[in-house]
Design a protein that fits this description.
By secondary structure, this protein is of the alpha/beta class. The chain has a single domain, classed as Ribonuclease H-like superfamily/Ribonuclease H (Nucleotidyltransferase, domain 5), CATH 3.30.420. The protein is built from eight helices and seven strands.
């Protein structure tokens, strides 16, 4: 479900009554200073996409989907609730992006990446794509495909390296693709976390 100012109360009501929550930040790039432009959440009831991206590509067809970033602060009550458990496949990255926006990350976190490394240290491939497959889920790969096909990247020579590196521009991917991609990731994070915790217990 794409969240806007009119249906934001639906998300709040669901979070108030949820314990296990999947979350995933979508950012302009993968660098330390790249900023969050959307947040995807998943509960037992539904998945949600909060869009803060005001790029021109999004304004024409989906202007009603753009939320002010101040709406992130309205989720702080749930993130600070120690009775809730938040699931992410790379919590360190997601939390750093939340902190850049002045948001205190969730208090109670299950990082599926770390858990998978501890549980099954028999594989070097701990990407979400690989881990999702292990647990019977399919990660949406359309964003990577779109970036490659439409050359949504900048090639730069990084200091100390002898080759150019591609800086990917995730915030230029069309809204519909990114929204479905984000919600899928959040659902997968939650689903993997539930199975991992069942194994622990």
């Amino acid at each position: 479900m794409v969240i806007n100012e009119q249906n934001f109360h639906v998300l709040i009501a669901d979070l108030e009554n949820s314990y296990d929550i999947g979350y995933d930040t979508e950012t302009s790039g993968l660098g330390f200073h790249d900023r969050l432009f959307s947040l995807a959440l998943a509960t037992a009831q539904n998945s949600y996409y909060l869009n803060f991206n005001d790029k021109a590509d999004h304004l024409g067809q989906y202007p009603h989907t753009i939320l002010p970033k101040s709406y992130l602060g309205r989720l702080q009550f749930a993130m600070c609730d120690k009775e809730k458990l938040w699931h992410s496949h790379n919590a360190g990255f997601d939390n750093q992006k939340l902190e850049l926006e002045g948001i205190k990350p969730p208090q109670n976190i299950h990082c599926t990446y770390v858990a998978e490394r501890l549980m099954r240290n028999d594989s070097l491939d701990l990407t979400l794509f690989a881990v999702a497959q292990k647990y019977g889920h399919t990660k949406d790969e359309r964003v990577s495909a779109y970036i490659t096909e439409h050359r949504l990247y900048t090639q730069v020579m990084l200091p100390g390296k002898e080759r150019k590196e591609k800086i990917l521009h995730y915030d230029r991917v069309p809204f519909k693709i990114m929204a479905e991609y984000g919600e899928t990731d959040a659902r997968i994070h939650r689903a993997i976390g539930l199975v991992q915790r069942a194994v622990y217990q």
